[in-house]
């Protein structure tokens, strides 16, 4: 077993907070968290946590609080442009029968607050307003981490849980890899629910895909999360950030016109519902969707990247947080084995890469469906979805290209001893 007495975690999002809890509770390791923001982050809309992630949330002790603050998503419904239903996936009963857990959609802030509360209850130190500027690593003794205010800390192991724009990755683990634009961007908001709605509902339009889903149905405040995903070219400017900021200002300023134009295509009662959602929308978030290319470096001798810092994928398969949780739980198991730290980190990558890359590829494929379409492309898309829903009754592939076992997967049941010889 590697001699790990102290771990420093960079990042206080779901990945970093979950890692702190697991290593503290199961590995009896001293943990300290550092976060660049001045206070707990309240960024982000509503995230999906399927059964494979909820199982791990339960093992962290925050499952009940999330159920109270989120919405169970029993089905996926796909609508045609005329408002008719192309098909639905009623997956909750089957998955719950096998795992005991549902799929939920929940505000990201609720997840962060629940995990942060448990971290604070355990007395795990967490420091805000800490901007990482340097990592000095010694393979034999550990890592020294330095911040912009001149303070520093040392650890036997450093965890980079600081997201797609990870400072740990850029400064130390893999400076060469850069986030790449997926080709699609999203506009989203959380609004009061106009009428009762069950499940996640998707509509493909000529200008992209519109998704609406409850995200706080079980709380006192019933809320709906919607997002519009569509193809937007990357700004042709030297400074991409300035280009995106300019585009963001235009999108946010004209969001009502955009949404009214998109939803005007949709007919029937469903179209009326979407327009009611638009009428309740006062503000929107606009964000270009970036991802990390496959094949990046995930670890050095004394540092490992977790979650989006290592393998950020598009959100179109709903597994981002769950992949980070699986990373955390596997790392915890490997650190308890009678292996060197370097061997444990090697096994971590060996186990995780195939599953991560499969989900990332599927997310990219799903995101491509959101691109703008002409009339013939719309007709082909709708016919293809109609045929797919009927074909799935015959075949076992039922969830956007994935087998059921991919969603009932339990990282704690993976045979890590099998990978010793690989």
Helical run tally: 14
Trace the largest sheet across and list its strands. Answer: 6-5-14-15-16-13-17
What name does CATH use for the topology of the domain at 181-290 and 371-392? Answer: D-Amino Acid Oxidase, Chain A, domain 2
CATH class of the domain at 181-290 and 371-392: Alpha Beta
Largest sheet: 7 strands, mixed
How much is the average pLDDT? 88
Radius of gyration from the alpha-carbon trace, in angstroms: 22 Å
Indicate the CATH architecture of the domain at 181-290 and 371-392. Answer: 2-Layer Sandwich
Looking at the structure, what is the overall shape? globular
Would you identify the regions where 5 or more consecutive residues have pLDDT less than 50?
none
How much helix, percentage-wise, in residues? 25-40%
Percent of residues in β-strands: 15-25%
Amino-to-carboxy terminus distance: 19 Å
Find the count of extended strands (DSSP E, 2+ residues): 18
Q: What oligomerization state is this entry in?
A: single chain
The secondary-structure class comes to: alpha/beta
InterPro entries: FAD-bd, FAD-dep_Monooxygenase_BioMet, FAD/NAD-bd_sf
Keywords: FAD, Flavoprotein, Monooxygenase, Oxidoreductase
Family: Belongs to the paxM FAD-dependent monooxygenase family.
GO molecular function: FAD binding; monooxygenase activity
């Amino acid at each position: 077993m590697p001699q790990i007495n102290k771990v420093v975690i960079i990042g206080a999002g779901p990945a970093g907070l979950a890692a702190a809890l697991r290593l503290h509770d199961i590995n009896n390791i001293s943990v300290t968290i550092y976060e660049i923001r001045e206070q707990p982050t309240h960024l982000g809309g509503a995230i999906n946590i399927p059964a494979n992630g909820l199982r791990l949330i339960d093992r962290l002790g925050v499952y009940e609080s999330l159920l109270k603050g989120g919405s169970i998503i029993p089905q996926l419904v796909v609508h045609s442009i005329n408002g008719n239903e192309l098909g639905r996936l009623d997956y909750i009963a089957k998955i719950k029968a096998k795992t005991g857990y549902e799929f939920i959609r929940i505000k990201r802030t609720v997840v962060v607050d629940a995990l942060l509360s448990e971290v604070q209850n355990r007395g795990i130190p967490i420091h805000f307003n800490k901007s990482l500027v340097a990592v000095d690593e010694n393979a034999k003794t550990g890592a020294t981490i330095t911040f912009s205010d001149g303070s520093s800390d040392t650890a036997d192991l450093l965890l980079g849980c600081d997201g797609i724009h990870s400072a740990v990755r850029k400064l130390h683990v893999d400076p060469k890899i850069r986030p790449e634009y997926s080709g699609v961007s999203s506009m989203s908001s959380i609004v009061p629910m106009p009428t009762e709605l069950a499940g996640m509902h998707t509509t493909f339009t000529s200008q992209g895909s519109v998704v609406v889903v409850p995200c706080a149905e079980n709380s006192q405040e019933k809320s709906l999360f919607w997002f519009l995903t569509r193809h937007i070219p990357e700004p042709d400017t030297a400074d991409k950030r300035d280009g995106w900021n300019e585009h963001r200002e235009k999108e946010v300023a004209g969001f009502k016109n955009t949404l009214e134009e998109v939803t005007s295509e949709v007919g029937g009662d469903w179209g009326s519902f979407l327009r009611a959602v638009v009428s309740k929308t006062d503000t929107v978030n606009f964000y270009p969707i970036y991802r990390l290319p496959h094949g990046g470096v995930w670890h050095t001798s004394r540092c490992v990247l977790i979650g989006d810092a290592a393998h950020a994928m598009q959100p179109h398969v709903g597994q981002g947080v769950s992949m980070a949780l699986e990373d955390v739980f596997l790392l915890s198991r490997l650190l308890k084995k009678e292996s060197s730290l370097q061997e444990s980190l090697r096994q971590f990558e060996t186990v995780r890469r195939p599953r991560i890359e499969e989900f990332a590829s599927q997310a990219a494929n799903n995101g491509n469906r959101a691109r703008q379409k002409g009339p013939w492309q719309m007709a082909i898309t709708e016919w293809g979805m109609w045929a797919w829903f009927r074909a799935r009754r015959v075949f076992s592939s039922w969830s956007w290209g994935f087998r059921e076992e991919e969603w009932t997967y339990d990282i704690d049941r993976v045979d890590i001893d099998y990978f010793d010889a690989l």
